[in-house]
Design goal:
The chain has 359 residues and is an alpha/beta fold. Helices cover 27% and strands 16% of the residues. The chain has helices at 74-86, 105-115, 130-140, 154-161, 167-180, 200-207, 236-246, 311-315, 320-332, 354-357; strands spanning 37-41, 91-95, 120-125, 144-148, 186-191, 213-218, 249-252, 262-266, 272-276, 289-292, 297-299, 308-309. Bound molecules: S-adenosylmethionine (SAM).
Length: 359
């Protein structure tokens, strides 16, 4: 059964609720990292089959996606997000899978906005439905979007998304997002050597001067289905070098401590780019992110092999204070630093798929 590729202790017992840690105040893990960011996967489904994320051979017609009953409802997501807010979370990102496939996503945005008025509320999307949904998402209180786009020519993009989705439709989505005020729009390009690295400079050129920020992401060994090899990774230093051969770049200070992307700006004032070097320059030491999977498991690392079942608590008798204490205790025990200790061997470990825990 293909589901076993990602199933993570589905029968894992409900978490014991500690009675020592106090609920509702900021927490730090064993490496003194605060809990600041929450990524919520709202669906494990996607309409793309990106070869580096949801390869067709695995995620095919026989693949067992989560049944509706296992998926957190909007009310459950909002309740948990509010509790995370009490523990220090300042940024919430909706992702997946493809989050815009979740029907009524704008209603969830509105619920989160009401529950967490001060939080930075964003969403990562492949852009396929963004043209239609951008106005409603903005109206509901979304702050910004990140749109994934791996190439500007249809042949390269189609070979990567593996469903022949056209570039033009994603560009329309980006325009619609900017018009709706979901700006600055960030454009994520995963760079895989031999697949799309020849598009790096074109991408930089295309978005220079638009106000959008392209972020070049090193191809990562997330999950266990993409056949990752170190040779496929294009180091960020090489990306910066290639772009700077055409356009002079200057480093920019991070917007805040622990920012994942390293920022560079065009010396002529045409905007900025970012590089995300999770393979060649691990940023575990400042990682303040956790992930809530579509079925309500909490993961404290993108490369985790197991999660913690919050859904049983949410659907059981646990009070808000109980759940907050459980989350706080999980975070306080956190030691993850996968990218610092990555080797060819660890890359083969059976890790959870990104579509399940949220990219
Ligand atoms: N469907 C949405 C999208 O396409 O943006 C959200 C989910 S997707 C998993 C989130 C981000 O993770 C995308 O920008 C995607 O390109 C990136 N991603 C997926 N697999 C990756 C990998 N193996 N290495 C680096 N980035 C990856």
């Amino acid at each position: 059964m293909k589901r076993t590729v990602i199933a993570l202790n589905p029968a894992r017992p409900a978490l014991p609720i500690p009675d020592t840690e106090s609920a509702g105040r900021p927490v730090a893990d064993r490496r003194a990292r605060a809990l600041r960011d929450l990524r919520i996967s709202v669906t494990d489904r996607c309409n793309f089959r990106c070869v580096y994320c949801m390869p067709k051979e695995v995620f095919d017609a026989s693949y067992a996606f989560l049944p509706r009953s296992e998926i957190l409802t909007f009310e459950e997501i909002t309740r948990l997000a509010r509790l995370f807010g009490g523990l220090g979370v300042e940024k919430v990102r909706l992702t997946g899978g493809e989050p815009l496939l979740r029907r009524g996503i704008e209603r969830l945005v509105a619920m989160l906005r009401a529950a967490l008025p001060g939080v930075d509320l964003t969403l990562t999307t492949n852009g396929s439905a963004l043209k239609a949904l951008a106005p409603a998402l903005a109206q509901a209180g979304l702050d910004r979007v990140t749109v994934s786009l791996d190439a500007l020519d249809d042949a390269t993009f189609g070979a990567l998304n593996d469903v022949d989705f056209p570039v033009a439709k994603v560009l329309e989505g980006i325009d619609a997002a900017a018009q709706a005020g979901l700006a600055p729009v960030k454009v994520n390009m995963v760079v895989k050597r031999g697949a799309n690295d020849h598009q790096v400079v074109d991408m930089a050129r295309r978005f220079r001067g638009t106000g959008h920020i392209v972020r070049f992401i090193e191809y990562m060994d997330v999950g266990s289905t993409n056949g990752w090899r170190m040779d496929d990774v294009v180091p960020s230093a090489e990306i910066v070098r290639r772009i700077s051969e055409g356009f002079a770049l200057e480093p920019v200070d991070p917007n805040y401590a622990g920012e994942v992307a390293e920022r560079w700006r065009y010396a002529d004032g045409a905007g900025e780019i970012g590089v995300i070097s999770s393979v060649t320059q691990a940023f575990c030491a400042s990682c303040t992110r956790c992930r809530l999977s579509t079925d309500g498991q909490l993961f404290t690392c993108l490369f985790a092999q197991q999660g913690y079942d919050l859904k049983s608590l949410v659907r059981g008798e646990a009070s808000d204070a109980d759940i907050a204490r459980a989350i706080g205790a999980i975070w306080q025990r956190r030691e993850d630093r996968y990218s610092e200790i990555r080797t060819a061997e660890t890359a083969k470990a059976r890790k959870v798929e990104m579509s399940f825990i949220g990219g």
